[in-house]
Amino acid sequence: MERPAWAPRSIDISVPSVSRIYDFYLGGSHNFEVDREAARKAMEFMPGLPKIMQANRAFMRRAVRFAVDEGITQFLDIGSGIPTFGNVHEVARAASPGAHVVYVDHDPVAVAHSQAVLEGSTDTDVVAADLRKPQEILAAPQVRQLIDLNRPVALLLVAILHFVEDADDPYSAVAELRDALAPGSLLILTHASYEGIPLPAERAEGTVGVYKDIRNPLIMRSRDKIAQFFEGYDMVEPGLVAMPRWRPDTAPEDEDPYAFSGFAGVGRKA
After folding, report:
1. Angle between helices 33-45 and 201-213 (to 10 degrees)
2. How far apart are CA 116 and CA 192, in angstroms?
3. Average pLDDT of span 227-249
């Protein structure tokens, strides 16, 4: 298999990557056949997976615009993945030129491609770090340079927490990040769940099994469990809802049924 220039030598391109699978769902080109094969296996159980990912991205863009409308001009996106059209820095800058964005991911492909996309940028950077180690993220030079933690920050945890197992205590990690943020900061979050999926949970478990097989377990939490990540935040209306129902630009009724899988919400730190 020929290695493209954007794939770091340090990675094993024969092993599927969650970031590259996500890129495939969104119609991107930064994925290999091994990623596409895993994605197709997952779609055998849940054919609407691309619709879920598109709804996820659409929510992210609306939430970023909301944050700018609230006066926030600095964004910390953890679990950012491979940059695709309409990513955080593009949306934020369109609404507020000069907005500062730091992307964080532990996938070498996502980091390398982000560095290539952001080359020459003075307002946006990328950090190779893991959500499970929040202090390493907060201490990173890129974060210290671009993010003023004494002012409100939009913290994005979009489609990342469902890849953190309970044994790794994701609630503590999210709480550590919250405690480092200034009052008025926003938590922008999406999370997978069996709730809302337009097929029996037993069938959806087939998709969960595919991710388990590639050693990236997909943790499907209940709405109540997802709501616990917002401890210390006041929920922004309309609360924790299906992605198309969060301040929609178009009628939610026009959305594909799969778009209502899982939950999205925004919280404001008091």
Report:
1. 160
2. 30
3. 98
